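Sample entry (438 residues):
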Amino acid sequence: MSDTHAQTVSYVRDTMLPQAEPPLRDKGAVKWMRENLFSSWLNAILTVLSLFVVYWIVSHLYPWFANSVWRAGSLTECREIRDATVGSDAPSACFAVIADRWQQLLFGFYPKEYYWRPVLALVVFLVSLWPVLFDNAPRKMLFFTLAAPFIMFALLWGGPIWGPLFVALGFVLGYFAYELVNKSAGPLAATLAAIILPLLYWFYLVGPLAGLFSSVAPIGFEYVDSKDFGGFTLSVVIGVAGIVLSLPLGILLALGRSSDLFLINKVSVGFIEIIRGVPLIVWLFTASLLLNYFLPPGTNFDLMLRVIIMVTLFSAAYIAEVVRGGLAALPKGQYEAADALGLDYWKAMRLIILPQALKISIPGIVNTFIGLFKDTTLVVFIGLLDPIGLTNAIRASTDWNGVYWELFVFIGLMFFIFCFSMGRYSLYLEKKLQREHR
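Predicted structure, serialized as tokens:
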């Protein structure tokens, strides 16, 4: 034995062995399934039950989609095509109603010869969002963003262009009034001037000026009444207007509720609690039926505008609470830091407090926006033909009487695209503003 040890020569490998593949259970899909689907007996049971539910749903829905008919002029023709191809007992969707009535679902009763106007308004809206949502846009594009609401109004409703133009000039008047008064009388007087002067201008000068210029130079588009709006055009207009207008109003209400000034605090609290304490459908009925009793006789207040105002106020109350939660979540040291820098209230809010509070509030704000956009379907109860209301009009025709699921699947898919896009942008914005890893 000692001779064997004496003759043993040590060996040192001078080349690396090729890297071996990990065991099958520790790589790829098998590893993922072991960790996520079958990590315990309870997880395995839930996985099997979930697979059974998914299989049951797919096994019932797949034939309905696979046997669907896309080319037909009526529900009767759909059934004849189904009977001739897959048999009368086979489930089959009649998506031909979408191919036949998609324009009505998108534009309602908007004149067909003017379909290009809502499409162009949508393009203007998307382009105007570019400098607001993304940093790679030129900053000068913000001027186009400011002008976009007036361009969209002129495209959608039409009429002489002088009305929207002179209304837009009111905001310019407010800006210059603030700048001029702020230099001599301070920010409070400047704010009052920036509010009062445009209001006086809009109430007393816009109408005569627009009428005068319209008679001299009748430039504009053919007028389209609000009752002709419908479908997703109506939902998008109400939803976008409510979102754009409710965010700044909600921020102001949140600041008012957090204020130490007694009157401002109580007014903000009362507004928020009253609006939140009543369902949206009640406010819509109020806008549709009761508001006329409080207006001067002969006043014609457009129903669609009334709905936009009520939706804006309702959404602003919820956004105010979301933003107030963001303000409450900030450490007290942030407020003390703003005081240490010698900033006044508005500069502290604009430069230090609100940016952080809004970053915290992004999920709640976007969630409120998504809920607002889906709640636009409630306008069907006050006579406006949103996509849900148009399904009743489509089924009222003899050609498509009896079609239900196909219309609701299409409408649900369209709403999902809008809401999913808002949710994905919310995630993108949260990751972009994340600073804890730096």
